[in-house]
Specification:
mainly beta; Immunoglobulin-like; 56 strands; 3% helix; Pectin_lyase_fold/virulence
Length: 686
């Protein structure tokens, strides 16, 4: 059968449905000779940015071979004078494929089968790449042309796609109980990958044929590193299997030293309980997780690493994740190139931070407070010696590499102790501090818990921070551990090398999230960041005395001095409020837009910025409309504005039905077309 779809194997049924056959087809130009780029008389180029551009991202991983046709889509959008209702603010999207091009005049919904033969539908700009009998490496560029003539076009690419006679250049199986057959069958994934690397293959397929729960991803041989410069090594399973990291948890494992892996299909479960992440060397194609399950069988609250929580999510660097089920991981998909149609549950820390394109995902029960950001009794300390006064203090922030305790009697230091954050027996554990205190004359300490590292010690209610001198004379001072694991849905990072341009977050529903939703607060630039049709429900809290999850203390924020150009929020429904912070450096340009959102509140912190357009939003009862807003309304509570936001149902009710507004997006998240006047938020009038 001709090759159709998103990297699926040959022989499966058509992956396109519902009118997809009418999508235009594109073949390489006549000048193409099988070498990437040879078909172009002039290679498309992205202009140097001097003003706003559309946001434009692939919704399909590149570096795929195809034997018949391959459906490729992008998400592209721009603010056009305060609205994206007409064609997502674009005049057209142009696909350039080795000297030939096709213009797509409007976005559309596309339904196709995912890696597990389940129909999925996404909104975007779509084209079919067609194999015309010539084989080779072909470059695709995509250009988004804005409807607003004051903006520039954006060009992305080149992306490699390979018209081919066969999808894979090598077929291997893995069966641990059977003898090795060189070049055909191996007893481990590592042995099969080692053979692929030795043969220099670009797109092999490895099929696991025996059901086991102890497959490992070992290194193919240090210092050897192999990169699939063109395709990926696809790992599938004909029976249910579980792939683990190593037999015990260690930082930065498993490390295959094979860049460019694709794990495909629901028969594969990757258990991260003994793995930090699937390592990527940073020199080859990004890993792709396609329709697999990624779990942490130890659970969200397991002490995984040096007396603390696990640090990483699924994979290092910028992977692709499509239609996966992911659970019990922190920062599961942070930094990903694409997160499409994934279901993510029981996470903590950040969720989609620095993801380049997040479309159509479902996230639930994301909470770092239930296991980590809470006070856990560590030890008690008291002084009963002859001194008149006795105090204990701690210098250093939560999780600092070193923190120093100072014990004083009658104002004179009688001892100091410095902790580390590596859970060492001498300096990194609660027992380390207890042993030191018990060695001081007149002091006594009683250990209560030694499972958590000393770098997060604090006083009750201290949120894991250091503390000033506390009285210990003839009284008991309670010390606790607390990991300050606060979370954001999408955060723009302030350190390292954060993304500064071209972000799309659309059609996602997030429920029971303990933390803030959007945090666009970096000293680095934020240019052409687009957030559309998202739903956010904050997890209720506090649920007990001393609970740090205080729901109404969380706000989505735009802050700090990084340039904010063409940052757009439209038709998002949020149980959380907004803070816009010019006092902290936030400075918007005239392409920035907040339109048709529903939020608990919205307020300026500092002098209002007249450049940003704030229009047709709806705030909950008790809020105050911010200066500069037009067409906005207020009224209703979370309970009567939506059907059941805790379950992800943001169907409008109450005051949303009586305060209709011109929409800024044509379609809602449920694919329903909005009317000329419609509800604010992600779901249209029913």
């Amino acid at each position: 059968m001709a090759r159709l779809g998103f990297g699926f194997r040959g022989g499966r049924r058509s992956a396109m449905r519902g009118g997809a056959a009418a999508r235009p087809a594109l073949t390489p130009g006549d000048a193409w000779n099988g070498t990437a780029g040879s078909g172009f008389a002039q290679v498309p180029a992205d202009p140097v940015r001097t003003t706003a551009k559309p946001a434009l991202r692939l919704m399909v991983p590149p570096n795929q071979a195809f034997t018949g046709e391959l459906l490729v889509g992008v998400y592209a959008a721009a603010n056009c004078n305060g609205s994206l209702a007409d064609n997502l603010g674009l005049a057209k999207v142009r696909f350039h494929f080795e000297g030939r091009q096709i213009d797509i005049a409007a976005p559309s919904f596309e339904t196709f089968d995912d890696a597990n033969d389940q129909p999925v539908t996404y909104y975007g700009w779509w084209v079919r790449l067609r194999h015309d009998g010539r084989n080779g490496d072909a470059s695709l560029y995509v250009e988004a042309v804005p409807a607003d003539p004051t903006m520039q076009s954006r060009v992305i690419g080149p992306y490699l796609f390979m018209p081919s006679a066969a999808l894979h250049d090598l077929e291997l199986t893995v069966a641990p109980s059977l003898p090795t057959v060189a070049g055909s069958r191996y007893q481990s994934i590592t042995a099969a990958l080692t053979y692929c690397a030795a043969q220099g293959r670009q797109r092999p397929r490895i099929t696991i044929t025996e059901a086991r729960d102890d497959y490992l991803l070992g290194g193919i041989g240090a210092p050897f590193t192999y990169t699939t410069a063109k395709g990926r090594a696809t790992i599938e399973a004909s029976v249910p299997v579980t792939i683990r990291g190593t037999t015990t948890y260690a930082d930065a494992t498993p490390r295959t030293k094979y860049d460019g892996l694709c794990f495909r299909g629901a028969n594969i479960t990757i258990d991260m309980a003994t793995a930090a992440n699937v390592y990527h060397e940073g020199v080859g194609n990004q890993h792709w997780f396609d329709g697999v399950k990624v779990i942490n069988s130890a659970g969200r609250g397991a002490l995984a690493y040096l007396g603390g929580p696990r640090q990483y999510g699924v994979a290092r660097n910028n992977p692709y994740l499509t239609e996966c089920q992911i659970s019990d991981l922190p920062t599961a998909v942070n930094g990903a190139s694409l997160v499409r149609g994934c279901t993510i549950t029981r996470g903590f820390a950040d969720a989609f931070t620095e993801v380049r394109c997040a479309v159509g995902n479902r996230l639930d029960d994301h909470d770092g407070y239930v296991d980590w950001a809470k006070d856990v009794n560590a030890f008690t300390v008291t002084y009963t010696g002859p001194g008149t006064t006795a105090t204990l203090e701690l210098a250093g922030v939560n999780e600092a590499g070193s923190r120093t305790f100072t014990a004083k009697v009658d104002g004179t230091t009688v001892g100091t102790f410095t902790t580390d954050r590596f859970y060492t027996a001498t300096n990194g554990r609660n027992s380390s501090v207890v042993n030191w205190l018990n060695g001081l004359s007149g002091w006594s300490a009683a250990l209560q818990d030694d499972t958590r590292r000393a770098s997060v010690l604090s006083v009750v209610g201290g949120k894991g921070a250091g503390f000033t001198a506390r009285n210990c004379k003839n009284v008991t001072l309670q010390l606790v551990t607390m990991f300050d694991q606060h979370g954001d849905v999408w955060q723009h990072l302030t350190t390292g090398s954060p993304i500064t341009e071209n972000v799309i977050v659309a059609d996602n529903v997030i429920t029971n999230f303990a933390g803030q939703c959007f945090f666009i607060a970096s000293s680095f630039a934020a240019r052409d960041f687009i957030f559309l049709n998202n739903g956010f429900h904050g997890k209720p809290g506090p649920s007990y005395a001393g609970d740090y999850n205080v729901r109404n203390d969380f706000f989505s924020q735009v802050s700090r001095s990084g340039v904010k150009s063409h940052v757009v929020f439209a038709h998002n429904s949020m149980t959380q409020g907004w803070l816009l912070r010019p006092a902290d450096g936030f400075n918007a340009d005239g392409y920035c837009l907040w339109a048709n959102n529903v939020a608990r509140s919205m307020a300026w912190v500092g002098t209002p910025d007249a450049d940003i357009r704030i229009v047709n939003n709806h705030l909950l009862a008790g809020a105050t409309l911010p200066a500069g807003t037009t067409g906005s309304s207020m009224g209703g509570t979370e309970e009567d504005l939506w059907q059941n936001p805790a379950a992800g149902d943001f169907t409008p009710r109450g005051a949303l039905l009586t305060n209709l507004k011109p929409p800024s997006l044509r379609n809602d998240r449920n694919r329903k077309a909005r009317g000329a006047s419609d509800c604010a938020g992600l779901i249209a009038l029913q």
